[in-house]
Amino acid sequence: MNALATHVLLLLGSAAVIYFACEFFVNGVEWTGRRLSVGDTATGTILAAFGTALPESVVTFVAVVFGKGDAQRELGVGAALGGPLVLSTIAYATVGLVLILTRQPLRGQANVRQDFRRLSGDQGWFLAIFVVKLALGLVAFAFKPWLGFLFLAAYGLYFWQEIRGGGAAGEAPEPLIIARGRPGEAPLGLSLVQTLAALLVIFGASRLFVIQLDALGPTLGLKPQLLALLLSPIATELPETMNAIIWVRQGKHRLALANISGAMMIQATVPTAFGLFFTPWRLDHSLVLAGAVTILAIAAMFVTFRRGVISRAFLASMSLFYALFATLLVLLHL
Description:
This protein is mainly alpha-helical. It has 12 helices and no strands.
């Protein structure tokens, strides 16, 4: 078997492992949230988002702190911009597409409109933080690194508000996978064991996925810069996207959207703080382009979510923002 076929098989295999591990993760995190009484929304925005976004934040931390040379540190900065772009476009588009394929309606439901109006608050938070994040990458001044603490404080405040107003608990999740056949509700200990074990598998399979993607880039003739900005962020945000597919397929779009929203808040604050602490945080034209498209996408969702007139087609159309970014990025590099 040649090297190309091996990389493709490992890429597909790792994606399959991520999906099945996410089945265990979403099941475990739902039970964890239920046992901790944090509500459905906070389960998605805090527990699930923290679990799937933490490994990516650690990768960014390692790149900017221990990276050998400016190139590796710049990759960490790129990840801090690429992640939110993928979440605000591809991840939301995936929710819309799965809703269409499974024929689940959204329009006209009062509780759906209320959910989206609540999520518009997250979009507003993210938009304000992200604009500051992008603006800081365009200027240089002596005390810029100290502003990293403000980003950590912003996430701390968001975390506190979400936990306090985490929403009502929904219906009981499906039986805990590792405790099927056991009577009664799943205990917290077993829920945590399943959630953390699934998270470790997701992290390992995601790393393998990224490695195979990096190896396939030169074979496909992709420049390293294009690979880092176009494909690598999709790979690193694959767990959130897989979670969204599973939850929407189960009819739990609230959890799917909350997971994406919470992951975006982490990506907007924690990796940015690391970048400010350990790099000059100067953004090149490609990263400014990624940030600008992210702002456009989030602004469109904020207005629509606030009005409560969301539709499946609108969510699916968020992929057009990523297509716009990809087209402009290729033209920029040409």
